[in-house]
Specification:
With about 400 residues, this protein is an alpha/beta fold. The protein is about 40% helix and about 15% strand. It has three domains: about 140 residues, Globins (Globin-like), CATH 1.10.490.10; about 100 residues, Elongation Factor Tu (Ef-tu), domain 3, CATH 2.40.30; about 130 residues, Nucleotide-binding domain of ferredoxin-NADP reductase (FNR) module (Rossmann fold, 3-Layer(aba) Sandwich), CATH 3.40.50.80. The longest helix is centred in the N-terminal third of the chain and has 31 residues. It is globular, with a radius of gyration of 22 Å. The two termini are about 35 Å apart. Keywords: Detoxification, FAD, Flavoprotein, Heme, Iron, Metal-binding, NAD, NADP, Oxidoreductase, Oxygen transport, Transport.
Length: about 400
């Protein structure tokens, strides 16, 4: 427990962190990797280059400072990050390394303003926060190892089938090389895929949502090929998986993880996805159908057009077969073929009037997944419709962020 003097010192740094938080975390990662280059194996280098990892850490540090006198308020976030850490292989011995680099970064960025009192207070606070993460992650490691079909660390899987779902999305069906059972999971969870690409110095780790219901003899991941765009290079891992990984090849993955899962609240369900964000939603949908769940479900999906819309035929067949399911498709730029087939419900973007016309109402459970601009737009709409925070559930691809207005 922290004493009152330490708590007050930490709280006094909140305004400083609000201004300098990202500068501190940028410096932190530079110091961390210079002293411990082996940790580069644990990080997504693309997120580092785009600043997403630095921003996510800055937000986490800021939240810890704001809530330092009642850290239970950030426990849900700790658990969500803990899932990612367990999936990546973060261990207790990493935390002292991180702590020393973080304190050094605070000192470097703030200079004389980082007094000995402030550094000592943050040293104490970091240890309390680290202990919370270590405790949560220990529990998650134990769960992953002890569940039926579970395992620790990496396990090798054979690519049993590789199937093109759209012009940019391909599914990989993975079965265990050892032939033993695989762990069940909750729809919405993900696995970490570890890839060693020829010519690259470091292992690349990417987390991909499982895109089918549990209970199958395989895991399925559906990967979008991230092509080069303005100021954004092509995705190293997604391109490698699409171009070079073939049926019969081996992939090393960690056991399923993640807290973005269906809630048993009895409310109607709205699955609201953009682009490849439909992957966890398909897992949720398949599970709802296969278990005979009696809740009404609306599946609303936004895509560029029919060429990029994955598993469309499956969605159509599911809708025809299950009277409690309604699907709605919005294409930003439909092709002439899309227009001829009448294969979508709205052109342009999902907007609030359309959402109100097709969704069951604000008293439903909403699940969001997709590109960050899409999720921010959907979140604003739901809040404008007076949907409660507790009924809005979402998952980020990569480092956690915020959907609140900036």
């Amino acid at each position: 427990m922290l004493n009152q003097a330490t708590i007050q010192t930490i709280k006094s740094t909140v305004p400083v962190l609000e201004v300098h938080g990202t500068a501190i975390t940028k410096r932190f990662y530079k110091l961390l990797f210079a002293a411990h280059p082996e940790l580069l194996h644990l990080f997504n280098h693309a997120n580092q280059k785009q600043g997403r990892q630095q921003t996510a850490l800055a937000n986490a540090v800021y939240a810890a400072a704001v809530h330092i006198d009642h850290l239970e308020a950030i426990l849900p976030a700790v658990r969500q990050i803990g899932h990612k850490h367990r999936s990546l292989g973060v261990k207790p011995e990493h935390y002292p390394i991180v702590g020393s680099s973080l304190l050094a970064a605070i000192k470097d960025v703030l200079g004389d303003a980082a007094t000995e009192e402030i550094l000592a207070a943050w040293g104490e606070a970091y240890q309390v926060i680290a202990d919370a993460f270590i405790g949560v992650e220990h529990e998650l490691y134990e769960q992953a190892h002890n569940r039926e079909g579970g395992w620790s660390g990496l396990r090798r899987f054979i690519v049993k089938r590789k199937e093109e779902e759209s012009r940019v999305i391909t599914s990989f069906y993975l079965v265990p090389e050892d032939g033993n059972p695989i762990a069940s999971f909750e729809p919405g969870q993900y696995v970490s895929v570890h890839i060693q690409i020829p010519g690259n110095d470091y292992t690349h780790i990417r987390q991909y949502s499982l895109s089918d219901a549990p209970g199958k003899p395989y895991y399925r991941i559906s990967v979008k090929r991230e092509d080069a765009a303005e100021a954004k290079p092509a995705g190293i891992v997604s391109s490698y998986l699409h171009q070079y990984v073939q049926e019969g090849d081996l992939l090393s993955i960690t056991a399923p993880a993640g807290g973005f899962t269906l809630k048993a609240d009895g409310k109607p369900i709205v699955l609201l996805s953009g682009g490849v964000g439909l992957t966890p939603m398909i897992s949720m949908l398949n599970q709802l159908i296969e278990t005979g769940d009696e809740r009404n479900v609306a599946f609303i999906h936004a895509a560029l057009n029919g060429q990029t819309h994955a598993v469309k035929m499956h969605m159509n067949k599911s809708t025809e077969a299950h009277p409690r399911l309604r699907t709605y498709i919005c294409y930003q730029m439909p092709t002439e073929a899309d227009r001829a087939e009448h294969g979508y419900d709205k052109e342009g973007y999902v907007d609030l009037p359309w959402l109100k016309a097709i969704a069951p109402g604000p008293d439903a459970s909403y699940y969001l997944c997709g590109p960050i601009p899409f999720m921010k737009s959907m979140y604003r709409m739901l809040k404008a419709w007076d949907v409660l925070n507790e009924d809005i559930h979402y998952e980020f691809f990569g480092p956690a962020g915020s959907l609140e207005a900036e």
